[in-house]
Specification:
The chain is α+β, with helices and mostly antiparallel strands. The chain contains 13 helices and 23 strands.
Length: 461
């Protein structure tokens, strides 16, 4: 079965017979004057249809009755798309059109996008709720107008019309959170391409090169291997730039003695990879760099080792923090009892982010990190608890240490801070993509050099 069709059927089964769903394609965005940014389809629309054209609205209706010409249809999937336009297609490329939506994508009904206002109220009749991700101001008004029209019609005919909006996080994002074998195949390919790109960047890095030369190797490898695009803006931070978490300029000249932090991953088949590696520009870690690097690596390995069904991402973060804090004491940056230092968050000037996130179609993928749990009794308090990992979920594990601008406010003697002048300017992050399996985990990016010996060998080419 077509993956998109199977996903739609699971989604429709989950929402029930009286709930409709509406998903809106990404809009074309102007880059400058008469030029548009490259188009990337909304992940929900692509997940459910495999369609990658703009100006599209997808409507899923378990209980619709739609009159078309002299026939009455009961469509589960209705698509509103750009019609064929030979003149525009000369400039912008082929369009599937209404016919393509039916024949190629399996839509039960399809109409030109301009017919949306007329047809959407009729599709919503017979449903009492709509799954919709509100916040798209331009489309919110159009949907609310359609709901109002459907309510007036239902009031006259004695039928159903939507009275509730449901966020996709309740159903669709739970489905997207657990990856199928088809999805994992795409992610494994993305990770393999990313592995080659990181290894090549390590091999060409040398004092005198520029950050953008390494970025160029990443992008060339992504496209040459069939990736549609980077999964996010590539970070190539050398020297002090490695201490800036979301550094993006990528224009500094690499100097002898620098560390280079690359956070980059490609997207393949609309599925992301997300990897960070840190390595010496000259191919050899200094003593201080090696000591700090091994602290971060130990923290990452300790967190990865814990990954299995039932463990929470909070527990993984806590383990990484514990190892990082003990390492900061060993480095002479902090002093005192490790447990108390963790409690006092003494590590925070040097490690200010969480240890991981969901990964999938979006690099920071959808899905709730907490789930409600109600105590006994109707009036019991509802608590939000960290959700346990389950097989099929994919997460990142990415601890780091950053001895840069952000640490300048930290005062010696405050919260156990001893001295960090000997590591000033060092920035290290190590990140892998981890699949939760029935028996534990699989590191999807394990092929990328990571130990000190592996990294130095890769830098020597």
């Amino acid at each position: 079965m077509n993956p998109s069709r199977a996903r739609r059927e699971r989604f429709l089964d989950a929402i029930g017979p009286r709930t409709a769903a509406v998903f809106v394609a990404t809009a074309n965005a102007i880059r400058n004057n008469d030029v548009e940014h490259d188009f990337r389809q909304d992940s929900d629309v692509f997940y459910l249809t495999g369609f990658d054209e703009p100006d599209t609205v997808v409507v899923l209706t378990p209980h619709a009755s739609l009159k078309v010409d002299d026939a009455t249809l009961a469509p589960k999937l209705t698509m509103f798309v750009r019609p064929r336009d030979p003149e525009r297609e000369v400039w912008d490329g082929y369009r599937a059109g209404v016919e393509g939506a039916r024949e190629q994508l399996g839509a039960d009904a399809a109409f030109p996008i301009d017919d949306l206002a007329k047809r959407l109220p009729e599709l919503l009749l017979g449903h009492d709720a709509v799954v919709y991700r509100w916040g798209n101001k331009a489309f919110d008004e159009r949907l609310f107008a359609a709901i109002q029209t459907a309510r007036r019609t239902a009031g006259r005919q004695g039928g159903y019309a939507p009275t509730r909006l449901i966020d996709p996080i309740e159903v669709l994002y739970e489905q997207r959170l657990r990856k199928s074998e088809d999805e994992l195949a795409q992610m494994r390919t993305a990770c393999a391409i990313t592995a080659e790109a990181h290894a090549k960047a390590m091999a060409i890095a040398a004092p005198g090169r520029y950050e953008y030369e390494l970025e160029a190797v990443l992008l060339e490898t992504f496209r040459r291997r069939g990736s549609e695009r980077p999964a996010y803006g590539s970070i190539v931070g050398s020297g002090p730039n490695g201490t800036i978490l979301h550094y993006r300029k990528n224009d500094r000249r690499l100097e002898d003695g620098d560390l280079v932090l690359i956070d980059a991953g490609c997207e393949y088949g609309y599925y992301a990879s997300d990897v960070t590696r840190t390595f010496p520009a000259n191919g050899t870690f200094s003593d201080a760099q090696r000591a700090a690097y091994e602290v971060v690596l130990d923290a990452q390995l300790a967190a990865i080792e814990m990954v299995k069904p039932g463990v929470t991402q909070g527990a993984l973060h806590d383990r990484a923090v514990e190892v990082l804090t003990a390492g900061l004491v060993k480095l002479g940056v902090l002093e005192g009892d490790v447990a108390q230092l963790v409690k006092d968050e003494a590590y925070k000037p040097f490690y200010m982010h969480k240890t991981g996130h969901w990964l999938g179609m979006d690099v920071h993928d959808v899905g709730a990190y907490f789930a409600p749990k109600r105590g006994a009794g109707d009036d019991a308090e509802v608590k939000m608890l960290q959700r346990p990992l389950e097989p099929g979920m994919v997460i990142t594990i990415e601890p780091g240490l950053y001895f840069g601008i952000g640490a300048d406010k930290a005062k010696v003697g405050e919260k156990g801070l001893k001295d960090w002048s000997h590591v000033r300017g060092i920035g290290i992050r190590i990140e892998d993509d981890i699949l939760v399996t029935e028996g534990g985990h699989e590191n999807l990016t394990r092929a990328i050099p990571k130990t000190v010996a592996e990294v130095e060998a890769a830098c020597r080419g």
